[in-house]
Specification:
With 109 residues, the chain is an alpha+beta fold. The chain contains 2 helices and 4 strands; from the N terminus they run αββββα. It is 46% helix and 18% strand.
Amino acid sequence: MNEKELFYEACGGILGTIHNYKQPVSRITRWNNRSAGNGRYEGFGLIRFFGPNKIHIALNHPERVNKTCSSKDEVFTLLHEVMTAAAFNIVTEKDNQRQDLLLNITETE
């Protein structure tokens, strides 16, 4: 595994999904470069590794994030923060729904 493949796999682990790494073609022609590149996470968005000092993140789920990071550690920290915040929001939303349900039940009685 190369550096990019390990990076994409680590990001997928944080997001809770898998990444299917595609080896780049050695010589690009008109016919062999017709597939989308690496860094696509279905249902989440795109993370592009341009180099160790330039990584672009464009996520739509669980939150909208569009940022360029300068290190892998910064990317991993950002992904952990986004996933933690999303988990907290889900728990809070479910608690609010339960409270609304309980209020509706007590009002009808």
